[in-house]
Specification:
The protein is mostly helical and 143 residues long. The chain contains six helices and no strands. Helix 3 (54-74) packs across helix 4 (78-97).
Length: 143
């Protein structure tokens, strides 16, 4: 198989990125979602790093990441979730990681990069967006 022949599979390029980034977002925030104590720890962390309205910001960031992670894995509303995650991780990098080591910043960079990819490329194949579109068009209705 030539390298050019691989282009027929480019619709699947988003799938591993969606799964990787989505699972990391879910795994990284589920403890805050399901534990008030962990959410308060995150609030204190944000306050120590100069975030205004740290409790509101903690709740907003955690739920945005958790929900976006689910949307990425499902492949539903991926571009909308990507915009939210780009903003979230730009703030995280500027607020927390400027001056931090590369290895500590790397997870945020990966989340930001994956979200930029998904914003520009969409959900790709094997996504709920595609299934919904296919089911709707098969019924003869336009989206």
């Amino acid at each position: 198989m030539s390298l050019q022949a691989l282009s027929r599979y480019k619709e699947y390029a988003a799938l591993p990125i969606r799964i990787l980034v989505g699972i990391h977002l879910i795994a990284g925030t589920q403890d805050n979602v399901f534990s008030g104590d962990r959410m308060l720890e995150f609030e204190k962390f944000l306050a120590a790093n100069g975030m205004i309205f740290p409790l509101f910001s903690a709740i907003l960031s955690v739920y945005a990441q958790f929900i976006s992670g689910i949307l990425y894995v499902l492949g539903w509303k991926v571009r909308t979730a990507a915009i939210v995650m780009i903003i979230n991780f730009l703030v995280a990098i500027v607020l927390v990681h400027l001056g931090d080591s590369y290895s500590n910043t790397f997870p945020a960079i990966v989340m930001l990069s994956g979200s930029v990819f998904l914003l520009l490329n969409g959900s790709g194949a094997l996504a709920m967006d595609k299934l919904r579109f296919k089911a709707t068009t098969e019924k003869g209705r336009d989206l």
